[in-house]
Design a protein that fits this description.
single chain; mainly alpha; three-stranded mixed beta sheet; 13 helices; disordered N terminus; binds adenine; binds zinc ion
C-alpha cells in the first residue's frame, strides 16, 4: 500500500504542469526548420540575412523567441506562438485573440522586415521571431483548441514518464529519435523542384490550414493517461519530419521574398 502511494506520488510529480510549459517545437525541431530554410535561400537573401544576424545561423536564432519568455519585458509576444480555434470555424470567422496570434505575429514580422523605415535592431529582433514562428506554424498542436491549451492539459505518458500531448509533439518524439538538427536536416526527404514549389504556394493562412488538417487526427491519436512508446513514434514521426521540412521550405519562401 505504502509503495503504491509513493509510486502514485512520483507519477504525479513527474507529470508536466503548464507552469513549466514551453510552447514550441523543442530546440532540435526549431533548429532543423532553420537549417532546412538555409538550404532553400537564394544567394542574395543569404547574404542580407548573414549581415543582419552577424553570421549567426537561422538554426542558431530559431530558439530566441522561447529564450526571451523568462523576461517579463517580452510577455506580449507569448500569444504569438499559436492560434486556437474550434474545428468547425475558419480563421477568418474565428474570434481573434486581442493580444495577437501566430498569424498576426508572422504578419507583423514580415511587415517590419519589408519596411524601409524599420531600425536594424527591430529587423534583427523580428527576423529571429519569424524563424521561430514558421516552425510553430507547422506543429499541429499550435493550431489546437483553446479549452485544452493546444493539448497542454491532455496528460499522457512518454515511456512511463508524465508529459502531455502538446509536449509529445513539441519534443518527446524528436528527442527520442536521438538525431541532431543537422542530421535531421540532412536526412529530410528528397523533393523535386515541383514539390518544393507546391509546398511554397499560398498564404500564411493556407499554410496554417495545411497544418490544421493534422490537428484533429493528433487529438484522436491518444487516450488521456495513455503510455506512449515506440509504436507512437513509428506511427507519427514521419509526420513530424515532414512538418519540420515544410516549415523550413516555407520560411525560405518568405525570406527570399523579403530579401529580394
Ligand atoms: N501554448 C500555450 N498555450 C497554448 C495554447 N492555448 N495553444 C497552443 N499552444 C499553447
Ligand atoms: Zn514557439
Ligand atoms: Zn509548443
Amino acid at each position: 500500500m505504502k509503495v503504491t502511494i509513493i509510486l502514485l506520488l512520483l507519477g504525479f510529480l513527474n507529470t508536466t504542469s503548464l507552469s513549466e510549459a514551453e510552447p514550441a517545437w523543442g530546440p532540435t525541431g526549431h533548429r532543423t526548420t532553420g537549417k532546412i530554410a538555409e538550404m532553400h535561400l537564394t544567394k542574395r537573401a543569404k547574404k542580407k540575412i548573414n549581415k543582419l544576424l552577424k553570421g549567426e545561423s537561422l538554426a542558431f536564432v530559431s530558439t530566441f523567441a522561447d529564450q526571451i519568455k523568462s523576461d517579463r519585458k517580452y510577455d506580449k509576444y507569448y500569444t504569438w506562438h499559436y492560434v486556437n480555434m474550434p474545428f468547425d470555424v475558419s480563421y477568418e470567422d474565428s474570434d481573434k485573440n486581442p493580444k495577437g496570434d501566430i498569424i498576426t505575429g508572422i504578419q507583423k514580422c514580415v511587415e517590419v522586415l519589408k519596411s524601409d523605415t524599420s531600425s536594424t535592431e527591430d529587423k534583427v529582433f523580428f527576423l529571429k521571431m519569424l524563424v521561430h514562428f514558421l516552425g510553430d506554424l507547422h506543429q499541429p498542436m499550435h493550431i489546437g483548441r483553446a479549452e485544452d491549451k493546444g493539448g497542454n492539459t491532455i496528460q499522457v505518458q512518454w515511456f512511463g514518464r508524465g508529459t502531455n500531448l502538446h509536449r509529445v509533439w513539441d519534443e518527446n518524439m524528436i528527442q527520442e529519435w536521438k538525431m541532431s538538427y543537422i542530421e535531421l536536416a540532412n536526412n529530410a526527404k528528397d523533393l523535386t523542384k515541383e514539390q518544393i514549389k507546391a509546398i511554397q504556394k499560398g498564404s500564411v493562412i493556407d499554410w496554417m490550414n495545411d497544418t490544421r488538417k493534422l490537428t484533429r487526427k493528433t487529438y484522436e491519436s491518444v487516450k488521456v493517461g495513455e503510455n506512449l512508446r515506440y509504436r507512437y513514434s513509428y506511427d507519427h514521426f514521419d509526420t513530424v519530419r515532414i512538418q519540420l521540412q515544410k516549415g523550413g521550405i516555407r520560411l525560405a519562401k518568405l525570406l527570399n521574398d523579403i530579401f529580394k
